[in-house]
């Protein structure tokens, strides 16, 4: 028997197949043409913790060896020089390579270049040594699976480069943040020269126990119950000092400090009442701070009062400044608002 394949039969069969897959694509959520697949967030968190501490070890070691060479990276929007050190690039490489298990995750870092060092393999070996000590650190958290296409990782491999150059080492940190659909769910800040690591998990808090929030206070008691120190940037103040003086008066002391991570931790531990930034800010500079502050009960918003989005599709910068507090966030924002209109409406 001879079987003949007529062209119109092939056409009908092809049409039926296309209709079948079309209906599945439209109405079946489990059918996905993308490369998305679920990832355990707790595995990512462990990698972030180890990578931050490993990179911090490298930064401190290179500084002590006097191997932090310097070059001009760029000029910022205000005409100020931004520098790059070898420690920035080595730290960045260590962190980026630690995510090799998840090549499809969107990783956004401040640094783009690559550099080698004869001690790089030694620094990398610290990662494996730290892995064992962190193996069970997240065991008490339930497994949280998220589609890999919803995840973005924001990295500042060396926050406070200018401070490192000047020897203001307390302001230097390594910051890594995991965002899901633009919302920060995990953040870690490691301070290489104090060996301090602060990290947080959304809905579970900040670790070690660092919740300093005192929410629910009467309005008249707010300013008498916190330390009246307002932090602003050392190098990108953007008129913040005058804004704070007009809004808060002379009862507050304004302190210039370097490193977004350092300033965020100062607000977290109560040694400062707020942190104000009025110029453009890069997302990798604040994502980890945002995650930690929110997990500890505080707030970080732009100067319009909106939460910050870390969707890669929305760009790498925030244009309308930010305010960080642990208490009565919108009370302070309302006091600052009359002086902020030029910043808010400019963008």
TrEMBL record:
UniProt entry keywords in alphabetical sequence: Hydrolase, Magnesium, Membrane, Metal-binding, Transmembrane, Transmembrane helix
EC annotation from Swiss-Prot or TrEMBL: 3.1.3.25
Keyword check for Transmembrane helix: yes
Catalytic activity: a myo-inositol phosphate + H2O = myo-inositol + phosphate
Pfam families documented for this protein: Inositol_P (PF00459)
Superkingdom of the organism of origin: Eukaryota
Amino-acid positions noted as binding Mg(2+) in the UniProt annotation, renumbered to this chain: 110, 156, 158-159, 285
Transmembrane parts of this sequence: 7-27
GO cellular component, as recorded: cytoplasm; endomembrane system; membrane
Cofactor entry: Mg(2+)
Main localisation: membrane
Pathway in which this enzyme or protein is active: Polyol metabolism; myo-inositol biosynthesis; myo-inositol from D-glucose 6-phosphate: step 2/2
Membership in a protein family: Belongs to the inositol monophosphatase superfamily.
Protein name: inositol-phosphate phosphatase
Organism: Trichinella murrelli
Lineage: Eukaryota, Metazoa, Ecdysozoa, Nematoda, Enoplea
């Amino acid at each position: 028997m001879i079987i003949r394949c007529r062209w119109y039969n092939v056409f009908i069969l092809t049409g039926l197949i296309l209709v079948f897959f079309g209906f599945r694509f439209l109405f079946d959520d489990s059918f996905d043409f993308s490369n998305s697949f679920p990832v355990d967030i707790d595995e990512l968190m462990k990698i972030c913790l180890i990578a931050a501490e490993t990179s911090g070890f490298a930064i401190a070691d290179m500084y002590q060896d006097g191997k932090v060479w310097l070059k001009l990276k760029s000029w910022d929007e205000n005409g100020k020089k931004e520098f790059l050190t070898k420690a920035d690039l080595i730290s960045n490489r260590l962190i980026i390579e630690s995510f090799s298990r998840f090549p499809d995750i969107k990783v956004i870092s401040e640094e783009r270049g690559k550099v080698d060092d004869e001690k790089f393999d030694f620094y990398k070996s610290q990662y494996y040594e730290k892995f064992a000590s962190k193996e069970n650190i997240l065991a008490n958290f339930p497994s949280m699976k998220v589609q890999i296409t919803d995840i973005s990782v924001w990295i500042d491999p060396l926050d406070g480069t200018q401070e490192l150059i000047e020897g203001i080492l307390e302001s230097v940190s390594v910051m890594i943040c995991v965002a899901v659909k633009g919302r920060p769910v995990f953040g870690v800040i490691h301070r290489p020269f104090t060996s301090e690591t602060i990290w947080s998990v959304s809905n579970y808090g900040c670790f070690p126990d660092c919740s300093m929030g005192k929410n629910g206070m009467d309005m008249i008691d707010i300013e008498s119950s916190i330390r009246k120190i307002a932090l602003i940037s050392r190098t990108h103040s953007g008129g913040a000092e005058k804004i704070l003086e007009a809004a808060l008066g002379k009862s507050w002391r304004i302190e210039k400090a370097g490193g977004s991570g350092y300033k965020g931790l100062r607000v977290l531990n109560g040694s400062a009442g707020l942190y104000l930034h009025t110029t453009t800010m890069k997302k990798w500079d604040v994502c980890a701070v945002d995650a930690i502050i929110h997990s500890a009960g505080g707030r970080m918003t732009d100067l319009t009062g909106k939460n910050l989005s870390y969707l890669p599709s929305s760009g790498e910068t925030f244009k309308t400044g930010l305010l960080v507090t642990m208490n009565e966030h919108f009370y302070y924002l309302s006091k600052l608002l009359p002086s902020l209109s030029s910043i808010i409406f400019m963008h």
